[in-house]
């Protein structure tokens, strides 16, 4: 019998909700404490989930891509995100701090090797972590690939996606004076870190609305107004990472270092009509990564919740679990 008999909604591809069996705040240094949780089977296959953003935070829905009888699911909120503290802090908050935090989690939980699972910015972090610590990674599962290159930032913040969404783009650029629109990441940075909280919330909402409006293939270009503090935190963290080019050593670093993970099996799930992270990055990554399989999902955009994306991610995790049982 088909495990997913009704294929009309994304939720029908997902496992039932599972509750954490372990939740804690982990002191990672530099004044940061991050939220870490485990759910599923304590003796199952360990999988760590890297959430998107930067700045997004984890959610209970992220547990539902994994068979709770087969997987030990580790979620964490990256520095400044979600339940981690201090909230929205950009101090001592770089890609390399996050990679070190993941290692602290792995060691604390006594995990020898784990699967690394991430989408969008989470895919970036998953790849950088795996390239830094390949000996501790058994599989890599990616969705909506983002390689933190200048070309990708230009696509989203310098007019690429605007060609498809001119009305939505206009709402994003209109708050910025015309003479500053040549570098919108920098222009928003001035306002998101101005010290005027009401302005930071206003520009945080504008920044977040541009991204949220393009996440789903079913979008009409509109997005609801995000809660002020969340929008401010999300926008500040994302802008902090983007203005610093992800704190990578050079543009194109992830593809240049693909040899470090070439032996690790990978699955890349990519929406064909992803307007935030276009498929070119996923295709290029797959071309250079001999042990990765690329699943291009027709009629899907960027969001984790897209029905086709959900279906393929559940299928990928089930396939890995079945291979472990053989």
UniProtKB/TrEMBL annotation:
The places in or outside the cell where this protein is found are: Cytoplasm
AB hydrolase-1 domain: residues covered? 46-304
Reactions catalysed, as given in the entry: Release of N-terminal proline from a peptide
UniProt GO cellular component terms: cytoplasm
Provide the active-site residues from the annotation.
120 (nucleophile), 274, 302 (proton donor)
Alphabetical list of InterPro entries matching this protein: AB_hydrolase_1, AB_hydrolase_fold, Peptidase_S33, Pro_iminopeptidase
- EC number(s) in its UniProt entry? 3.4.11.5
Q: What class of enzyme is it?
A: hydrolase
Q: What is this protein called?
A: Proline iminopeptidase
Q: Which organism is it from?
A: Tritonibacter aquimaris
The record's gene field reads: pip
């Amino acid at each position: 019998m088909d495990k997913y008999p009704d294929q009309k909604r994304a939720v029908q591809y997902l496992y039932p909700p599972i509750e954490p069996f372990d939740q804690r705040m982990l002191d990672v240094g530099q004044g940061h404490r991050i939220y870490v949780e485990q759910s599923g089977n304590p003796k199952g296959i360990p999988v760590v989930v890297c959430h998107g953003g930067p700045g997004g935070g984890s959610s209970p829905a992220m547990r539902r891509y994994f068979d709770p009888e087969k997987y030990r699911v580790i979620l964490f909120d990256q520095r400044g995100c979600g339940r981690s503290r201090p909230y929205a802090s950009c101090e001592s908050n770089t890609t390399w701090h996050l990679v070190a935090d993941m290692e602290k989690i792995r060691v604390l939980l006594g995990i020898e090797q784990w699967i690394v699972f991430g989408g969008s910015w989470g895919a970036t972090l998953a790849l950088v972590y795996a390239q830094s610590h390949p000996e501790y990674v058994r599989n890599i599962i990616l969705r909506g690939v983002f390689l933190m290159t200048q070309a990708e930032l230009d696509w989203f913040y310098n007019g690429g996606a605007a060609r498809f969404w001119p009305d939505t783009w206009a709402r994003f650029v209109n708050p910025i004076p015309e003479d500053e629109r040549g570098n919108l990441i920098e222009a928003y940075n001035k306002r998101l870190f101005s010290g005027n909280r009401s302005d930071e919330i206003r520009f945080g909402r504008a920044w977040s609305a541009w991204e949220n409006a393009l996440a789903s293939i079913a979008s009409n270009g509109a997005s609801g107004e995000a809660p002020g503090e969340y929008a401010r935190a999300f926008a500040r963290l994302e802008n902090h990472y983007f203005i610093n080019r992800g704190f990578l050593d050079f543009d194109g670093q992830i593809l240049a270092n693909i040899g470090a993970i070439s032996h690790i099996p990978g699955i890349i799930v990519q929406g064909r009509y992803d307007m935030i992270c276009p498929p070119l990055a996923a295709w290029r990554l797959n071309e250079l990564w001999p042990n990765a399989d690329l699943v291009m999902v027709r009629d899907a955009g960027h969001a984790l919740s897209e029905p086709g994306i959900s279906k393929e991610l559940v299928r990928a995790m089930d396939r890995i679990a079945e291979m472990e049982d053989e």
